[in-house]
Amino acid sequence: MRNRWVGRRAVGTWLVLGAVGLLAAVAVFDALRRAPSPVAAEEPAGAVRLTGDELPAPGLLEGTIVFSDLRECRPQELSLETLTLGPAGPSVGCNLWVPPRGGTAAVSLASALGGRGSVVGLLRLGDPPEIVGELGVVRGHPSWSDDGTRVAWCTAEDHTVVLDVEPGTRTRVDGCRPTIAPDGSVLTRPAALLTPTLLRDGEVLLGEEELLRPFPRDVQGPLDVVGFDVRADGLLAVVTVRFESGRRPSRRLQLWRGGRLEQVIQLPELSLPAGAGRLGDRVEFAPGGRAVAVAFPRSGMQMVVVDLERGEVVLGPVSQHGFAWSPDGAWLAISNAEEIRILEPGRGGPEYVLPLGAEAVAWR
User: Fold this and answer.
1) For FRET with 228, which of 42, 217, 257, 288 sits at 20 to 30 Å CA-CA?
2) Continuous segment of H or E residues that includes residue 357
3) What is this structure's pTM?
4) End-to-end Cα spacing for the chain
């Protein structure tokens, strides 16, 4: 009798334990079903994944595309590692200037009174981007140091201000159209047009005598420095234009190093309406220095790419609303307002297409 009771009690115990185990398994399954997947958890709130046949595979290209949305001029970031769009920032001006590194960019806020530039603010990149300060009135394009710690711009009073972002200190440099060189010096040119002079930290680096060397000596006409950039190894790219009576202007890319002229490349002369700026107002070495992009300063205007080894134009003229070199210098992103094309200059048509309407583009 006692053995039968013990047997029944054992069976009851196993039934209770089985029921408890089943309930626990159901609870675990429900928790797993409700928990977000690991992929979704890694993406920021509001992230959108791009899809399409012409997109690069996730992670094939390095870095992040930062752009200003064409419709509302809201800054936004696209991760090329995951092909996901982060949340958009505030609706501001469409012009956007982003350093290769660092967490702060510059963005236009409004047009300045009298048309002498635009009011530019500091934008903290993140999820989402947000305005954190103001530079003041900027003429032309600000220039960032590679590490994003300094930014320089031409003021309405026709001189350059250099801001050290973290301490907030400002210094003044003579000239306009600043470019912060990799060695920390600041290249400018005099604010007045038709001034064949390039300055470094306010002192003459190249004057008219040097810059006239690539042009015929038997032809008279004023010379002007249009734009410039400098490579990490000290190679200096200067776009100059010579105005000759009865002829179209002659525009040339001069390459200098240590006071010696190394190479001269003829550039096309593109005619645009007055006020559109000039080809060469924006000059930008590709990282690695194998090519140089030469462009008009405003969106919707044309650009060309010069291969330094071949000594010739290998892309363009092509219309663009913004362009940016990849961090390794192998690829070029060009916005035509409706989409961003990513290509290898000199190797045929576009390789990839991002379905993003962008007014300004950076790649970091």
Assistant:
1) 217
2) none
3) 0.84
4) 83
Whether the pLDDT of residue 44 is over 70: the answer is: no
- The phi, psi pair for 330, rounded to 5°, reads -85, -25
Cα-based distances in Å from 250 to 220, 279, 291, 302: 12, 12, 21, 17
Q: Whose CA is closest to 50, among 332, 349, 350, 340?
A: 340
Distance of CA 186 to the CA centre of its chain: 19
SS (H, E, C) 20-57: HHHHHHHHHHHHHHHCCCHHHHHCCCCCEECCCCCCCC
C-alpha torsion angle, residues 345, 262, 212, 200 (rounded to 10): 90
Instruction: Please state, as a whole number, how many other Cβ atoms lie within 10 Å of the Cβ of residue 354.
Output: 24
Q: What was the pLDDT predicted at 275?
A: 59
Burial code (b: 16+ CB inside 10 Å, e: under 16) for 130-148 equals eeeeebebbbbbbbbbbeb
Q: Which residues of 157-180 are buried (b: 16+ CB within 10 A; e: fewer)?
A: eebbbbbebeeeeeeebbbbbbbb
Q: How far is residue 101's CA from residue 81's CA, in Å, rounded to a whole number?
A: 17
CB 200 within 8 A of CB 192: no
Three-class SS of residue 220?
Answer: coil
